[in-house]
Write a structure and sequence with these properties.
Helix content: 40-55%
Structural class: alpha/beta
Shape: elongated
Distance between the termini: 39 Å
CATH architecture of one domain: 4-Layer Sandwich
CATH topology of one domain: Metallo-beta-lactamase, Chain A
Strand content: 5-15%
Largest sheet: 8 strands, mixed
Number of strands: 15
CATH superfamily of one domain: Ribonuclease Z/Hydroxyacylglutathione hydrolase-like
CATH class of one domain: Alpha Beta
């Protein structure tokens, strides 16, 4: 069962109201002093959260609800902010790993904003008062939640305020009660069926509404370089309207200024002759994105797992344009995302070895091909025109990319014998090397490592993968050669820029200071899983 934190609070509130109603009937003169309804509401919150097995989100909601009941009771209770800190402390004590989950901070940020915007205000009265309060709450929550979601997931759902305004009350006040009534009335099949039919009709209506909302206002994925700035601007707008005792003209002027900045924010352009290299974290597979001023190339498309899920689905919203997609060879960890590319995106041309069937019409990828875009030069070093006798791995497309005086080499899954066959054609020095075959011992042989001495060696491998990639011997070989070592298994997606005056530098999505060092200079010390 999926149990929203809001529903834990609603169940506790409903039981509290019922308990106090019964207390008013039984003891009309002293019902306000009776404490058992508050205990009953706390027990209801605990019982309802237990339906979800007290998983972290339900546990967090239950603890927050219990503290909220204590604050609302007014009996030697802490104030709202003391209660907020107490709930946060309890959650962290009970579930220390919660501090790494975005849900914890999204929940507590939302509650903190609600305390700010409603502290000192009178309780809404009447239907119009509660409707106005609901609108005000959603409008004030929207920019702060958008900022938090941006920081946590690097994307925005423009339809979220509308969906929350309509769907949350519908689900909470009708669907959840109907679902619970359906379970409670199981001994009476006719009534239970009626409740579930009502639930089913509402669920279908909500699904139609959500589809329409997402179609009309699809997810927005801003450029990674703008995410932090966007989040700060949205947080600033939320702060202007949440802070007490701020003059209205200052709120309006500040909101206008921040909104203009927000709308005018654009990702910095990539200058000609500069290349952005991003080795995506796709688990045990490979997907490298290359971008220059007006050209976008993918080398491999990542894996497709037994469930049918391909990580490429989660990297970009539908409708992207890729000028060239090179599929190194047909193995599923390199070509698994091709079908998703066909379904969701536009591709100018596919390149793959002639004997490889990757599921789409391709142009042959063969040694000697060259092209240039935006001052960046591309060259295919392997396979030769006649390569049908080679294994699929050894037919991999090997790509060399040059931006200014810096060079990138991606070797696919070719083995050591093939590395020696094209090694003499590689221009050195090599700045970035995406290590062959995810760091397998069958690739990155001594001749390649010693001859190229890459400044940075990047392993595209899955965390705790069963193959032991990168192999211990390969890691040691690169270390002895003085290369900085990086792995998507540890570092997440890796980004590097070539062709800049300041030289190449690799940045990791999951940076960890304790992994710096161990090689010459400020480099990562990647360990083999074995």
């Amino acid at each position: 069962m999926v149990i929203s934190g809001l529903h834990v609070g609603l169940v506790a509130t409903f039981v509290l109201l019922m308990g106090r109603g019964v207390a008013r009937l039984v003891t009309p003169r002293r019902w306000r002093l009776v404490i058992w309804p508050w205990w009953l509401a706390g027990a209801a919150a605990l019982g309802y959260a237990s339906l979800a097995g007290l998983e972290p989100p339900a546990l967090r909601a239950m603890l927050m609800t219990l503290v909220g009941l204590w604050v609302a009771s007014g009996r030697h209770a802490p104030g709202p902010w003391q209660g907020w800190w107490l709930a946060l402390g309890l959650v962290v004590i009970v579930d220390p790993l919660a501090v790494w989950r975005p849900g914890l901070w999204l929940s507590f940020l939302a509650v903190a904003l609600l305390i700010l915007v409603w502290q000192g205000r009178s309780r809404p009265r009447g239907v119009s008062g509660w409707v106005a309060a609901l609108l005000r709450t959603q409008l004030l929550l929207a920019p702060l939640m958008a900022a938090a979601v941006l920081l946590a997931f690097a994307r925005l759902a423009p339809a979220a305020p509308l969906v929350n305004l309509l769907v949350v009350p519908l689900v909470s006040s009708l669907m959840v009660p109907l679902g619970l009534i359906g379970w409670l009335l199981l001994p009476i099949p006719t009534l239970s069926t009626l409740a579930w039919q009502g639930f089913d009709g509402l669920a279908r209506g909500v699904a139609v509404l959500l589809d329409a909302a997402v179609a009309g206002l699809p997810l927005w994925w801003p450029a990674p370089e703008t995410v932090l700035t966007l989040a700060l601007l949205l947080g600033g707008i939320a702060g202007l309207w949440a802070l007490p005792a701020l003059a209205m003209r200052l709120r309006l002027a500040g909101t206008l200024l921040l909104s203009v900045t927000l709308l005018g924010l654009e990702a910095p352009e990539i200058p000609p002759g500069t290349l952005r290299v991003r080795v995506q974290d796709v688990g045990q597979g490979q997907l490298v994105e290359l971008r220059s001023a007006s050209y976008r190339l993918l080398y491999d498309t990542g894996p497709r797992f037994a469930s049918g899920f391909a990580p490429i689905e989660a990297l970009w919203p539908a409708g992207q344009r890729f000028d060239t997609v090179i599929v190194s060879h047909a193995d599923l960890d390199h070509a698994g995302g091709v079908s998703r590319l066909v379904e969701r995106h536009a591709v100018g041309a596919y390149l793959a070895p002639l004997a490889e069937a990757v599921g789409v019409p391709v142009r042959p990828c063969r040694r000697g091909q060259r092209w240039e875009r935006d001052g960046v030069r591309y060259r295919v070093l392997w396979p030769p025109p006649r390569a049908a006798h080679l294994s699929s791995n050894d037919r991999s497309c090997v790509l060399e990319v040059t931006a200014g005086d810096e060079r990138l080499l991606i070797t696919g899954d070719v083995g050591r014998e093939i590395e020696r066959a094209f090694l003499a054609e590689v221009d050195d020095p090599v700045t970035l090397l995406v290590a062959g075959h995810h760091g397998s011992a069958t690739s990155s042989g001594p001749h390649l490592v010693q001859s190229l001495a890459p400044r940075h060696a990047l392993f595209s491998a899955g965390r705790h993968n069963g193959y032991g990639h990168p192999a211990d011997a390969v890691v040691r070989r690169f270390r002895r050669g003085g290369s900085c070592l990086w792995s998507t298994a540890l570092d997440g997606a890796l980004t590097a820029w070539l062709g800049r005056p300041e030289g190449a530098a690799v940045s990791a999505t999951r940076s960890a200071e304790w992994r710096h060092g161990g090689v010459e200079g400020p480099c990562h010390a990647v360990e083999s899983p074995h």
